[in-house]
Amino acid sequence: MLKSTFHIAKMDCPSEERIIKLKLDGIQGIKKLEFDLEKRELIVYHSNPDKEIDARLSELKLGSKLIKTIQIDDNRFVNKTESKQSKVLLIVLVINFSFFVIELGTGFISNSMGLIADSLDMLADSFVYILSLLAVGSTLSRKKKVAKISGYFQLLLAALGFTEVIRRFISFNELPDYKLMITISVFALIANAICLYLLQKHKSEEAHMKASMIFTSNDVIINAGVILAGIFVFLTNSKYPDLIIGSIVFYIVVRGAFRILKLSK
Q1: Mean pLDDT within 143-160
Q2: Cα gap 157→162, rounded to integer Å
Q3: Which residues of 61-84 are buried (b: 16+ CB within 10 A; e: fewer)?
Q4: How far apart are the first and last CA of the chain?
């Protein structure tokens, strides 16, 4: 059994980790992946020397570099079952999709583009979790097909969102309900924190990775941004803080969509 350690310079949150998992899916001989976000390291356990691992990581343009490859005793390698992976991914999928529905509905009620945009980011995360679930014991072609559909669907939603933001910038609209914005975003932030905790706990149970809880995901940053936008709507009595945060979140959704589309090639 071979153990290859890579340094991934731009890997600092769970989204990069999931993208790497999907990118390496389908390579024959890979037995297990271990991630250390704090050290920005990826450990790959594989049965045979394979240059394709290094090549696929380079395609992601995350600053990957092979540190070392060593031979290890097969008896030291423990391949965990896929059932725990699927269970955790299903839980975080349900949480993300539930908040997509909640934020989308309250976004329209409160007239907040920030909440609507955040709901689409939750939907984008749901797509990534679905892809991760399909990657567990599934074929590479099926995963790529779903990735392509998901990526284009996210681009369509983001385009509609940007159109609405522009319309609201140049037309008269009622001020967003900052109280509802802040309240729902606080609950969404808690939900994202729970998802992150579950993923880190799952990794610790595998006993091969020490993840850092101090790293915040993009979702937590977005939630904090919507909360801040709600505060500025209150302080300035203006719709623009909400529209600005909405534009930023839609940009993040577009960026995530292009990343997923890369995986479908």
Answers
A1: 77
A2: 9
A3: ebebebeeeeeeeeeeeeeeeeee
A4: 30
Q: Is the pLDDT reported for residue 206 higher than 60?
A: no
Instruction: Map tokens 């993208």 to a residue.
Output: 19
Domain extents in the chain: 2-76, 82-263
Give the pLDDT of residue 161.
Answer: 84
Q: How far apart are CA 17 and CA 215, in angstroms?
A: 13
The whole model's pTM is what?
0.60
What 8-state DSSP symbol labels residue 36?
E
Residue located via tokens 């399909």: 134
Tell me: pLDDT of 128 over 80.
no
Q: Please tell me the distance from the alpha carbon of residue 206 to that of residue 211, in angstroms, as a whole number.
A: 12
Q: Which residues contact 127 (CB under 8 A, 6 or more apart)?
A: 150, 153, 154, 260
What span, in angstroms and rounded, lies between the C-alpha atoms of 32 and 188?
32
Closest to 246 (Cα-Cα) out of 184, 166, 182, 173: 166
CATH number for 2-76 (one of 3.90.249.10, 1.10.287.180, 3.30.70.100, 3.40.50.720): it is 3.30.70.100
Cβ count within 10 A of residue 209: 18
Q: Extract the tokens encoding 123.
A: 């939907």
Q: Which residues contact 214 (CB under 8 A, 6 or more apart)?
A: 38
